[in-house]
């Protein structure tokens, strides 16, 4: 059964700064069954910004590799797979430029994050192109989910704020 994985991405440091691969086929080939189709970046100037919970419906379901390359975020995945023992449960991870963690998120999970530092930058590597018709959101503030966001929410999009409540058909 597919599950969310976190992996450490090696970083080389010297007096000039750092060098790090954001994607390396040899590192990710054992996790991703499909080729990458899209790479995106999210910039977030304010602490407390909330993005999510997002996923794409069939047939545009996607694998994602998510990394925070600047700042720090509290990253959350919600299991949408009805046949899973962890259906409806969420896991969270702290991703930052300091810990060099990346999440590998398979289809069947909604994803979101809240910024813990100003000017946080998050990259997404995806195996499917974004499809506005198949894009879905779950309201991250829904009391049925009980997500303990670490900070007061300072910024959230209207679409995320008006998203459907949990549960949803995946």
Automatic annotation (TrEMBL):
Signal peptide interval: none
Active site residues according to the UniProt entry: 54 (proton acceptor), 124 (proton donor)
Example of a GO cellular component annotation carried by this entry: cytosol
Molecular function in Gene Ontology: dTDP-4-dehydrorhamnose 3,5-epimerase activity
Pfam families per record: dTDP_sugar_isom
GO biological process, one term: polysaccharide biosynthetic process
Site (Participates in a stacking interaction with the thymidine ring of dTDP-4-oxo-6-deoxyglucose) location in chain: 130
Similarity remark: Belongs to the dTDP-4-dehydrorhamnose 3,5-epimerase family.
Name of the protein this chain belongs to: dTDP-4-dehydrorhamnose 3,5-epimerase
